[in-house]
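Researcher: I'm preparing a figure for a lab meeting and need a structural model of a single chain. I don't have an experimental structure, so a prediction will have to do for now. The sequence is pasted below. Please return the structure as C-alpha cells so I can convert it later.
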Amino acid sequence: ATDIDINKLFNTHGAKYRELGLKDKMNDLTDDEKLDLLSTNGMLVKRPLAISGDKVTVGFKEDQYKETWLS
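Model: Understood. Here is the structure written out cell by cell.
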C-alpha cells in the first residue's frame, strides 16, 4: 500500500538474500512472489522499516528520516 518499489524493500546485503540467490532471480519474480518472500522471511526485509499512516521509510538515510519523522 505504498508507492515504494518492492525491490527497495529487500535487504540486498543480507546473508539470506545471497543464500537464496535472489540477485539473479529478482527480474523473473512477480510482485506477488516478491511480497510472499518478504512476508515469510523477515531477514529479507531492509531495516529499519518505519510505517505510520501514509508515511513510510526504508533503511536509514538520516536526512530522509529527519524530514519524514521529525518535521
